């Protein structure tokens, strides 16, 4: 807290979103360039301060995604990750050239186990690399962040030495990652307080934290750090991220806002955009949100028990500490129907953050909308969002296309599916029986495609309410160590399942030579 003309102002808590980088490191969560741009626009509307758009040195695709995000985002800083290597930093600098405000985030591991086993470097060599990397990054931007990877298991004296050196080299944000999710709140908070107090030039940098959720403590550890002086939190929408994920943005933001009595800081987030972002990330990645997830889960504001309902009706504060509408829940309103025109459709889609690249794209989306409106009378924002996402999938993944699907399912009989696909411009038809309509359909598709991929997950969610709601199906496939998620939606869940399966098969078709930032050698 600081005083301006005698009025006490709260510090700013910087929200650094890494959904597009660490979030994308979740197995199966990889996103295309266009999907990343869509999420980045939603994050900008949410008013996150910094968007970590990716790791440009990972692959040409990652480079292009960071570049595309850098070119369109104006109100948030766009950040690129780089190992402490000249070639990574140059790649990040290049990708970020078009950004209005850019940041390079460079890192090197500092825990004894990572330095010895992974990097095979002495602590002195690690400091040298870190300083060199920060200086090189400063040639591209004044906004340079440094992370000592695996800080949660690093020696505090060594952290003080390396952090002091990188501040002198020009780092303006020092991010303390609990890379393997090993820390516990009291201890992690104390580490942050100690670093701020012990590093002589600590006042020249902002302390940040980046916590993983392996013990379910990512949010608690981040908040403990904020209570001890951290002024930037790295987090992701829905807590997406490597392994058990990162700290969830929505939980951090709402904890700081709801408990303003205990936090001396505030964010600039427009919390009403939280739910839209959460749904968009979930749809694009195919990672559903569990119903009891704080803030964005379907049950987060649902009062089931009679005693709770009674209390909420008398006075909502009896059981509610936040208002559902403050995080966007009231946005679930019926917007369009069968008789809505092209203009109404277009303006609502644009309000939801999508753009049509051409008249042809708008026409295609509008005809999909009309088809959906014939099957389903009330079209909600969630339906529109899914419709546009699906149009995007099909435009990008042309290799396998669903042409027709017919399923016979009768009590006492084995269900049978007949499917017609266009595979690489050739039309093929096949049949298969199965345990149920979905099983038969996926088997018929597999018979034609012969992918030999292993189905690791199949899940169905309804997008809105009612039996005419669209079912959103997620399919996870594994092949030769590569994991992809496919997504499909339809008012008929058998068709939604076929679309999801084909979407995953198309993703397996595209080459993926991305390097993992933390597995690479330095
Ligand atoms: O978890 C981690 O250590 C990271 C770094 C690259 C910051 O993601
Ligand atoms: Zn991480």
From TrEMBL:
Any one Gene Ontology molecular-function term assigned to this protein's record: manganese ion binding
SMART domains (UniProt xref): LeuA_dimer
InterPro entries according to UniProt: 2-IPM_HCS-like, 2-isopropylmalate_synth_dimer, AIPM/Hcit_synth_CS, Aldolase_TIM, LeuA/HCS_post-cat, LeuA_allosteric_dom_sf, LeuA_bact_synth, PYR_CT
PANTHER family for this protein: 2-ISOPROPYLMALATE SYNTHASE 1, CHLOROPLASTIC-RELATED, HOMOCITRATE SYNTHASE-RELATED
UniProt xrefs under SUPFAM superfamilies: 2-isopropylmalate synthase LeuA, allosteric (dimerisation) domain, Aldolase
Chain positions recorded as Mn(2+) binding sites: 22, 210, 212, 246
Keywords: Acyltransferase, Amino-acid biosynthesis, Branched-chain amino acid biosynthesis, Cytoplasm, Leucine biosynthesis, Manganese, Metal-binding, Transferase
Record flagged with keyword Metal-binding: yes
GO cellular component: cytosol
Family (UniProt): Belongs to the alpha-IPM synthase/homocitrate synthase family. LeuA type 1 subfamily.
Job of this protein: Catalyzes the condensation of the acetyl group of acetyl-CoA with 3-methyl-2-oxobutanoate (2-ketoisovalerate) to form 3-carboxy-3-hydroxy-4-methylpentanoate (2-isopropylmalate).
Organism whose genome encodes this protein: Crenothrix polyspora
Pathway(s) per entry: Amino-acid biosynthesis; L-leucine biosynthesis; L-leucine from 3-methyl-2-oxobutanoate: step 1/4
Annotated EC: 2.3.3.13
Region (Regulatory domain): 401-522
One protein family per Pfam: HMGL-like
Class of enzymatic activity (EC top level): transferase
Cofactor(s) listed: Mn(2+)
Gene Ontology BP terms: L-leucine biosynthetic process
Protein name (record): 2-isopropylmalate synthase
Occurrences of domain Pyruvate carboxyltransferase (ranges): 13-275
Catalytic activity: 3-methyl-2-oxobutanoate + acetyl-CoA + H2O = (2S)-2-isopropylmalate + CoA + H(+)
Subunit structure: Homodimer.
């Amino acid at each position: 807290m600081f005083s301006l003309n005698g009025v006490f102002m709260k510090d700013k808590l910087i929200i650094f979103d890494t959904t597009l980088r660490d979030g994308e490191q979740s197995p199966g969560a990889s996103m295309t360039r266009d999907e990343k741009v869509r999420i980045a626009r939603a994050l900008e509307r949410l008013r996150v301060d910094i968007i970590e758009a990716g790791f440009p040195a990972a692959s040409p695709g990652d480079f292009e995604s960071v570049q595309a995000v850098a070119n369109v985002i104006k109100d948030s800083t766009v950040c690129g990750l780089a190992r402490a290597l000249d070639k990574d930093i140059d790649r990040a600098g290049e990708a970020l050239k078009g950004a209005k405000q850019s940041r390079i985030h460079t890192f090197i591991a500092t825990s004894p186990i990572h330095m010895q086993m992974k990097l095979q470097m002495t602590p002195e060599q690690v400091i040298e690399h870190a300083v060199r990397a920060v200086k090189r990054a400063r040639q591209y931007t004044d906004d340079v962040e440094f992370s000592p990877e695996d800080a949660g298991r690093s020696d505090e004296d060594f952290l003080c030495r390396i952090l002091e050196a990188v501040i002198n080299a020009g780092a303006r944000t020092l991010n303390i990652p609990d890379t393997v999710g090993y820390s516990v709140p009291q201890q992690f908070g104390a580490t942050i307080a100690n670093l701020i107090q012990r590093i002589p030039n600590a006042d020249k940098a902002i302390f940040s934290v980046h916590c993983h959720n392996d013990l379910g403590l990512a949010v608690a550890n981040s908040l403990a750090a904020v209570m001890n002086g951290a002024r930037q939190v790295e987090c992701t929408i829905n807590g997406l991220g490597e392994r058990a994920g990162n700290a969830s943005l929505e939980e951090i933001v709402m904890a700081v806002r709801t408990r303003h009595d205990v936090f001396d800081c505030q964010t600039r987030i427009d919390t009403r955009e939280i739910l839209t972002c959460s749904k968009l990330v979930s749809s694009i990645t195919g990672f559903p949100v569990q119903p009891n997830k704080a803030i964005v889960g379907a049950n987060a504001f649902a009062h089931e028990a009679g005693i709770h309902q009674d209390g909420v009706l008398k006075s909502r504060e009896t059981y509610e500490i936040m208002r559902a509408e403050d995080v966007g829940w009231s946005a679930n309103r019926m917007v369009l129907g069968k008789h809505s025109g092209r203009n109404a459709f277009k303006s609502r889609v644009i309000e939801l953050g999508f753009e049509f690249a051409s008249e042809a794209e708008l026409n295609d989306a509008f005809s999909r909308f009309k088809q959906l409106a014939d099957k389903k009378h009330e079209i909600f924002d969630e339906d529109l969002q899914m419709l546009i996402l699906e149009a995007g999938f099909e435009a990008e993944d042309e290799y396998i296309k669903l042409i027709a699907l017919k399923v016979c399912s009768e009590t006492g009989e084995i269900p049978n599916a007949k499917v017609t696909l266009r595979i690489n411009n050739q039309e093929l038809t096949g049949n298969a029986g199965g345990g149920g309509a979905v099983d038969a359909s996926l088997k018929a598709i597999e018979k034609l495609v012969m992918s030999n991929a292993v189905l690791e997950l199949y899940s169905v969610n309804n997008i809105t309410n009612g039996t005419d709601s669209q079912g959103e199906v997620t399919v996870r496939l594994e092949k030769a160590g590569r994991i992809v998620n496919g997504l499909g939606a339809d008012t008929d869940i058998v068709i939604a399942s076929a679309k999801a399966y084909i979407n995953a098969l198309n993703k397996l078709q595209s080459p993926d030579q991305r390097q993992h930032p933390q597995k690479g050698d330095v």
